[in-house]
Amino acid sequence: MTLAPGTRLGPYEILSALGAGGMGEVWKARDTRLNRLVAIKASHTSFSERFEREARAIAAVNHPHVCSLYDVGPDYLVMEYVEGESLHGPVPLAQALALAEQILDALDAAHQKGIVHRDLKPGNILLTKSGVKVLDFGLAKIQHAPAVDSLGQVATQSVSLTAEGSILGTLPYMSPEQVEGHDADTRSDIFAFGVVLYELIAGTRPFTGKTQANLVASILKEEPRQLFEMQPRTPRGLAEVVRICLEKDPEKRWQSARDIRHALRWVAAAPPPSMPARSVRVWQGLAVLMAAVALGIGAWVFQPAAPGSPSRFEASMPESVTLSSPSVSPDGRKLAAVGAGVWLRDLDALEWRRLPGTEGASTLFWSPDSRYVGFIVGRTLRRVDTTGGPPETVASFPTAAVVGLGTWNRHGDIVMKS
């Protein structure tokens, strides 16, 4: 298709060029029926009937942070015209968190419809007067609801909306599974979101390389620098949220945009990292008091320096479970205890949860980054990831006489006292 200002595509009058890419061109146009501006994406090839059907399904995603799809032609799409600028970092932390929540809202809305973006990047996210707008949403793949095959087995159907056999994405934001040519799902979007948020905060991408081969190797093998090393004011909790987004294995990442949104809200409500050391100690002390009450040790009273009534902090124990050996994480945000396994609770939550596969655990201790809980079962030293996954055996002991506390330093060394 050859377009130029003044060309008509049915009721749409072409006004000016907006951009071009490998699959086609984007034009600013006017809908003469409604007298409104639209963006028209003209493809180099004609769309199939399947593409039109699936594109109309994408149009059903009605969300304020998703660019709307209005119409489908034989070889063009008519979309909402959005005025704004692409995201770029670094930006202030509060702004990064606000933008991240809007992007996650858009991702969640599409993922709930079974739509995977597969090319999430700053260039496809515009910052407008009314907030974020995610562009080109869903023009890659739709995961349908499970269907039953001829053998009566449940299978998930996937429909690609790009050229058959092509790998869609922009390399610096592609997940390891996309780089390797494997199928991408919603967790690939989560990886790309992690790259975008990292760049918003640090002002640089987590994976870099002078050549495409170097960049691919970085995505597949390298661990990015921690955000708090790039920006010292970054809370450790936020750095951990982003790190989990960037896990190489999709199974170890956050499994939904909604979960990340909840985690970021918790980070935003946490005490700022720049508070004085004395304030940090007071806050962690309150967490210990809450743990003591939760375990039935008694009601502890925190007496403020100023005159007034004492404050009391209470939290309930899990039903029908007796807990012992409480241990507060180094960041003061989680509490672990033993009770027919390892039980974990975020101090800003109401519910305890038992970590699977930890039956028979004793002698709890935390990793320095507050992600892992170490414990002993019989003659083995094990650790479990508090974000999910089965326990791992770290070492075996010649006897079962190891009963002392463990110490886990920042270099990964664990020392046990017998």
What is the residue-mean pLDDT, rounded to a whole number? 79
The secondary-structure class comes to alpha+beta
**Quick one: biggest sheet?**
6 strands, antiparallel
Unreliable stretches: 145-166, 274-313
Give me the Rg, rounded: 26 Å
As an assembly, this protein is single chain
Write down the CATH class of the largest domain.
Answer: Mainly Alpha
**What helical percentage do the residues reach?**
25-40%
CATH H-level superfamily of the largest domain? Transferase(Phosphotransferase) domain 1
The largest beta-sheet arranges its strands as 1-2-3-4-6-5
Number of strands: 26
Give an account of the 3D structure:
The protein has three domains: 8-80, Phosphorylase Kinase, domain 1 (2-Layer Sandwich); 85-269, Transferase(Phosphotransferase), domain 1 (Orthogonal Bundle); 278-416, no CATH class. It is 25% helix and 26% strand. It has nine helices and 26 strands. The chain has helices at residues 49-58, 93-112, 176-179, 186-202, 212-221, 227-230, 236-245, 257-269, 277-294; strands at residues 8-9, 12-20, 24-31, 36-43, 69-72, 76-80, 85-86, 115-116, 125-128, 131-134, 141-143, 147-148, 154-155, 158-160, 301-302, 311-312, 324-328, 334-338, 342-346, 353-355, 362-366, 372-377, 380-385, 392-396, 406-408, 414-416. Strands 1-2-3-4-6-5 form a six-stranded antiparallel beta sheet, covered by helices on one side. Helix 2 (93-112) runs antiparallel to helix 8 and helix 7 (236-245) runs antiparallel to helix 8. Residues 145-166 and 274-313 have low confidence and may be disordered.
